[in-house]
């Protein structure tokens, strides 16, 4: 495995790719359409990695492949030394763009995940709800919450698994600015606690606010990756440069 | 011949008088149909859940078969159960023919496919919605099943009530295996058939009124459940 320095942690130290997520020549097709095409990318094991790119670039597929929800047709995906799979997935949590909440109360939604990991307790539930700003909503039916509240509940459920890696698939795509700010605050808090965050977004402003490093995808390939500051100041690929200037990428 | 209004009035008088024979028939009908519904749920719910979640060779054929069995003709089920429980049949030694147990068996066979097919549909739709989230949470099959059954509980109770509705209104199978014996296996539907043939229309209509009230009650319960589910955002 390549050991090149490709990212940096929250403390600013260089991080080698070998300890994090690596894609090697990964391909994935649906109905003969090649959606991920020979993707090779390394993601450091610390900090917030933002995955950017235009619609159809393969951002959500990248996340699902990394989490093992779908399987690559070719190539290799590894987390450190371990191939992606069920045991690796148990250390991760995925927050979907559209929350899928159980037909239960807010408290029962969190309890469900805590119980599934064998650590249900009222204290843990209350701590999680406090962390996402849903104290006082415990008895409310989850599906009665607003979009932003539902997304925060999904965050609480994800954090209930005590993940080492938190994957987020455009979690603020349809939220108002206040809800977006709340989610970003939670993400920063999670990252500061040492959880690796991989955040998919097409919002350049959000990427600038959150990213320690960036992976830029276009047409199913990783066309650029690197530290956030360098990426936003001087993108190396024409695709990323055009995207940051707000141009259409065809 | 009495007029329809007169028959209806006599029927209501019978219902309100608390007639002992009538109460006995109603009680046996409920006992048989509720027992059959519970047994059908014990068989049909797990079967429906397996068909909804599991992927195995022949699954589609199994779904088609279960769906087809929803339309089982009651008299054919009655005949098959009769052949098995009659003295010459393989289960004749049990001595169950012309007993409420035989009627419960026949009704269970009739409504288990209904419960299985409808619960499969309910759970499959729920599973499609939850599947990615559950896989992401790395839940076991048992945890997935338990969550689906709990979250689908309102719809599944509706399924059970649909099964009960079919059982309590069924006449062909219970007539064949129960024999419509007075004070032993006479239920509402078989009594209606008998009393109509005897010309005792008031009693037949009284039983009909009770049956319709039961159907109304079942539908009201289903509607109320749906409202409750919507109120709690479970729908």
Give a structural overview.
- The complex is a heterodimer of chains A (250) and B (235).
- Chain A has 250 residues and is an alpha/beta fold.
- Chain A has 9 helices and 12 strands.
- Chain A has one domain (5-100, 162-244): 3-Layer(aba) Sandwich (Rossmann fold).
- Chain A has a 6-stranded mixed β-sheet, sandwiched between helices.
- Chain A starts with a strand and ends in a 6-residue tail after the last helix.
- Chain B is mainly alpha-helical and 235 residues long.
- Chain B has a single domain (16-207), classed as MetI-like fold, CATH 1.10.3720.10.
- Helices cover 78% and strands 0% of the residues of chain B.
- In chain B, 38% of the residues are buried.
Write out the CATH superfamily name of chain B: MetI-like
Bin the strand percentage of chain B. under 5%
Number of helices of chain A: 9
User: How big a fraction of the residues of chain A is strand?
Assistant: 25-35%
User: Total domains of chain A, how many?
Assistant: 1
Pfam families (chain A): ABC_tran (PF00005)
Keywords (chain A): ATP-binding, Nucleotide-binding, Transport
GO molecular function (chain A): ATP binding; ATP hydrolysis activity
Domain ABC transporter (chain A): 21-244
Topology record:
The complex is a heterodimer of chains A (250) and B (235).
Chain A (H helix, E strand, L loop, with lengths): L4 E4 L5 E3 L4 E10 L2 E11 L4 E5 L6 H9 L6 E6 L2 E2 L2 H4 L2 E4 L10 H11 L5 H10 L15 H13 L5 E5 L7 H16 L3 E5 L3 H7 L2 E6 L2 E7 H6 L4 H7 L6
Parallel strand pairs in A: 5-10, 5-11, 8-9, 9-10
Antiparallel strand pairs in A: 1-2, 3-4, 3-6, 6-7, 11-12
Helix pairs in contact in A: 3-4, 3-5, 5-6
Chain B lengths: L3 H14 L2 H34 L5 H11 L4 H12 L14 H37 L4 H11 L1 H16 L3 H7 L9 H11 L2 H31 L4
